[in-house]
Amino acid sequence: MAIEAWFMNDSNEDQRLPHHSNPKEFVSMNQLAELGVLYWKLNPEIYENDEELKKIRDDRGYNYVDLLDISPEKLANYEGKLKDFYTEHIHADEEIRYCLDGSGYFDVRDKNDRWIRIWIKPGDLIILPAGIYHRFTLDTNNYTKLMRLFKGEPVWTPFNRPQEQHPARKEYLKSFTEKAGVALKAH
Fold it and tell me: Beta-carbon neighbour count of residue 94 at 10 Å?
């Protein structure tokens, strides 16, 4: 099954709720791909020896991997970290996350600055392009185990919005004018 994504409402209720717009408006894999968001569905039970994951890592140059358990019991300064993750930001590099257990939401901005909520569950590997505004939160299960992948040494530096002059943001926006409606390949 493909990943689920939808446009969000503007409610300030608990960030861990789905926040569907009314009426519900789902977002397709092609719409995500047009924003530069890539997706694979893998088998999280075999992640240590998964040939498809190895191929993705080799093809894209991801040579560093770590695991992160996010829950009140497993993450030091849980409330503070969750608040930081949910602050809108960009990165200078891609953000690659593979959900091994639990679930959570990545929210990304579309071309019109609307929030799209992407619900990740076990087996979902997503790549957010450098320069895209995004944030992360758990859902009401309050737990996820994520694999983080990087090219070279890991860099976790978020650049909180506004970042319109950041080189990664400028490059991200430039990609829309160059592609002029040509969707990226979705997996």
Answer: 19
The ranges assigned to domains in the chain are: 22-172
Annotated binding site for Ni(2+): 89, 91, 95, 134
Give the CA angle between residues 88, 89, 90 to the nearest 5°. Answer: 150
Annotated binding-site positions for Fe(2+): 89, 91, 95, 134
Question: Residue with structure tokens 């009140």?
Answer: 72
- Superfamily, domain 22-172: Jelly Rolls (2.60.120.10)
Cα gap 132→128, rounded to integer Å:
7
State how far the Cα of 117 lies from the Cα of 142, in Å rounded to an integer.
17
**Is residue 184 very low, low, confident or very high in pLDDT (cuts 50, 70, 90)?**
very low
Q: Average pLDDT for residues 17-31, to the nearest whole number?
A: 96
Q: Which residues are annotated as a binding site?
A: 89, 91, 95, 134
Q: Find, among 34, 13, 1, the residue nearest to 116 by Cα.
A: 34
Q: Is the pTM of this model over 0.90?
A: yes
For 67-107, write each residue's pLDDT tens digit. 999 999 999 999 999 999 999 999 999 999 999 999 999 99
What residues are paired with 108 via a beta bridge?
Answer: 116, 134
